[in-house]
């Protein structure tokens, strides 16, 4: 690509278009762009590029709106765009970017920008057409091919007469046509990129990328011979004639799609439509094939026909810790394409780790636009799930965040649903509260297929240098969120750029591996003593000490002493001495993580002449933090223990030893007891971000 500059289609629907140095290039509806939308002028936008300064100027020439990075252009007004900008030849459609020499071109067709491609364009403009050995017409404009198909009847066998409504594979393994395959402008097989473009436009219910009449729809008033004669009389068709003709073809396609829709949704109408579209036998075959199809025009497409898209954008606030945005056009689907926002869809414009204000953002990769549009075309519902703890802590105004996210959706120009968790608890990823709300309440009653859905996020647990000069991920919350639900997971680099998966590390504590069959204490150890004693519990917060004491010791007559209740250690020591003097055993339920705090109660036992055992809850700090998050999720009134307290306790921790004065140290295993199955399911999910 030395000394070269090209215009690249982000949807990969055509080869890169060469852009000469400091010369105007007119772009619009043409064979080069593969655009046949009659709303797009042949001279829609004028592009001028300076190779040396990398300055790019664009001017809208057509009557319909074009846009750059989501900003509408004005006809006749020239604006500048950067190499990272995205040009939409029509507003919200046909995204392109300018690629200079040395930059990576996305499409695999870059080598095809050659003399042969230029020759095809030249031949089409001059009205010349080359012919292959089998007589098929080549190098014709899509609109001309559409006219030829409409005007010239062909002999068809019984098999070709079938109206294929769902793509599937026959016994030979080759795919048969779908309804969208009829949008192709060539009798030869369409490339994968062309098929993607056709599917995108068809699903968005906009003008097909290359309209052509299906075999069933033909002109009944004009003989085929007259069509051919008229075509021979004039190879050069004016803009007005061609636009009128393409519009006519589009209207026929609309009628075909309406018929197909009715046939799928109503059995009675289906039988009537069989006669108008094709024979009863061929339609029956198509409907049976539809049930086994795995293409994107199957179940989710059927669901989207039954669900009415949102007619306007709106915000909802179903919970004090949750906000939901529904943009115009969002509709329920069984296929969910989930994404994180920060670091996945957008990043900072300034290059900082954290945005300096609400305007400091840009779309992460140019590929984001095309990828998301293809997902919408394939029947996916785009849903963003984001943790925004700053709102709950009062550092970010929710109104500012809402305005920012609305602007992001406007720039992406696709229907999006956004769920925002503003605090801890069940809605904060990796907990799946946001997903449960989506599935149970906010998907228009459409059941979600986890197998057909996926999630993309940048918090993936990757370590330092997972890629050259890349820092470790700040957390693993996105990967764990997908793991908890059972969704396929991708990082932004894997999904948008096609990178290979990078190594990652899961959290130290894995709640899935906790066995309910583990004994509370080792065999041979005594849980309750037959003699008066002092029991000192040792362990981090949320290690299960209180549950253990109240379940196994207090019912046996032990006096329960806890500093959270009595407030000071002096009162705890006083109550311990009173209980011992009354002839009762005592259990001390404090963290007691250092020798100094333990010595107070060892001294009480020694003065009373009683033994003192230590029950050591040998749980990692990660396990205890998981337990604490579980408490927070299942009990809304629970006051969370912050990280500073955990860190302070960890810094003071010293494992207990017999030399401190204990008569015995008993290790206690953590064996959870759950009130119900739901609590157990929640507990066995990853609840911590890292």
Automatic annotation (TrEMBL):
Its main location: nucleus. Residues 113-313 are annotated as: Disordered. It is found in: Nucleus. Residues 172-183, 198-207 have a biased composition (Polar residues). The keyword GTP-binding does not apply. Residues 152-171, 244-253, 263-274 have a biased composition (Basic and acidic residues). This is PNK FHA domain-containing protein.
């Amino acid at each position: 690509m030395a000394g070269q500059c090209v215009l690249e289609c982000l949807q990969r629907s055509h080869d890169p278009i060469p852009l000469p140095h400091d010369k105007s290039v007119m772009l619009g509806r043409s064979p080069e762009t593969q655009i046949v939308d009659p709303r797009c002028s042949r001279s829609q936008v004028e592009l001028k590029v300076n190779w040396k300064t990398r300055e790019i100027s664009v001017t809208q020439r057509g009557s319909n709106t074009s846009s750059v990075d989501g900003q509408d252009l004005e006809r006749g007004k020239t604006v500048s765009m950067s190499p990272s900008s995205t040009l939409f030849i029509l507003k919200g459609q046909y995204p392109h970017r300018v690629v200079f020499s040395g930059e990576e071109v996305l499409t695999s067709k870059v080598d095809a920008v050659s003399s042969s491609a230029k020759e095809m364009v030249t031949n089409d403009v001059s009205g010349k057409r080359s012919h292959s050995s089998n007589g098929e017409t080549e190098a014709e404009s899509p609109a001309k091919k559409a006219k030829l198909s409409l005007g010239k009847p062909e002999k068809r066998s019984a098999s070709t007469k079938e109206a294929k409504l769902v793509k599937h594979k026959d016994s030979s393994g080759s795919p048969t046509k779908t309804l969208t395959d009829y949008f192709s402008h060539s009798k030869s097989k369409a490339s994968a990129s062309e098929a993607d473009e056709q599917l995108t436009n068809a699903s968005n219910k906009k003008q097909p990328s290359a309209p052509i009449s299906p075999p069933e729809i033909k002109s009944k008033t004009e003989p085929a011979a007259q069509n051919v004669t008229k075509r021979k009389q004039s190879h050069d068709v004016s803009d007005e004639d061609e636009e009128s003709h393409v519009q006519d073809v589009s209207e026929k396609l609309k009628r075909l799609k309406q018929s197909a829709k009715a046939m799928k949704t109503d059995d009675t109408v289906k039988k009537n439509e069989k006669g108008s579209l094709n024979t009863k036998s061929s339609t029956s075959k198509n409907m049976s094939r539809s049930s086994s199809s795995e293409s994107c025009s199957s179940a989710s497409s059927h669901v989207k026909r039954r669900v009415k898209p949102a007619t306007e954008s709106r915000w909802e606030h179903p919970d004090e810790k949750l906000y939901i945005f529904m943009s115009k056009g969002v509709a329920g689907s069984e296929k969910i394409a989930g994404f994180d926002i920060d670091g996945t869809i957008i990043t900072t414009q300034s290059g900082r780790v954290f945005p300096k204000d609400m305007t400091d953002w840009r779309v992460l990769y140019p590929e984001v636009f095309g990828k998301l549009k293809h997902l919408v075309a394939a029947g996916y519902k785009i849903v963003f799930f984001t943790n925004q703890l700053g709102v709950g802590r009062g550092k970010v105004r929710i109104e500012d965040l809402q305005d920012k996210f609305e602007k992001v959706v406007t720039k992406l120009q696709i229907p999006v649903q956004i769920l925002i968790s503003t605090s801890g608890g069940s809605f904060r990823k990796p907990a799946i509260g946001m997903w449960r709300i989506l599935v149970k309440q906010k998907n228009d009653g459409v059941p979600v297929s986890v197998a057909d859905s996926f999630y993309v996020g940048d918090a993936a647990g990757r370590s330092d240098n997972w890629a050259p000069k890349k820092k470790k991920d700040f957390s693993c919350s996105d990967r764990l969120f997908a793991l908890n639900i059972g969704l396929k997971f991708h990082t932004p680099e894997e999904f948008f750029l096609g990178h290979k998966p990078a190594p990652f590390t899961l959290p130290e504590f894995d709640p899935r591996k906790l066995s309910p069959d583990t004994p509370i204490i080792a065999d041979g150890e005594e849980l309750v003593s037959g003699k008066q004693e002092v029991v000192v519990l040792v362990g981090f917060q949320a290690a299960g000490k209180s549950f253990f004491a109240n379940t196994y010791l207090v019912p046996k007559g032990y006096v329960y002493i806890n500093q959270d209740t009595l407030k000071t250690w002096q009162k705890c020591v006083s109550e311990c001495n009173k209980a011992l003097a009354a002839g009762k055993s005592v259990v001390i339920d404090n963290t007691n993580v250092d020798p100094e705090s333990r010595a107070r109660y060892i001294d009480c036992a020694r003065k009373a002449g009683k033994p003192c055992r230590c029950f050591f809850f040998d749980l990692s700090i990660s396990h205890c933090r998981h337990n604490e998050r579980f408490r927070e999720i299942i009990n809304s009134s629970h006051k969370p223990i912050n990280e500073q307290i955990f860190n302070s306790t960890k810094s003071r921790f010293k494992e207990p030893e017999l030399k401190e004065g204990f008569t015995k140290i008993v290790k206690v295993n953590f064996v959870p007891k759950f009130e119900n199955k739901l609590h157990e399911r929640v507990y066995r999910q990853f609840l911590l971000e890292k």
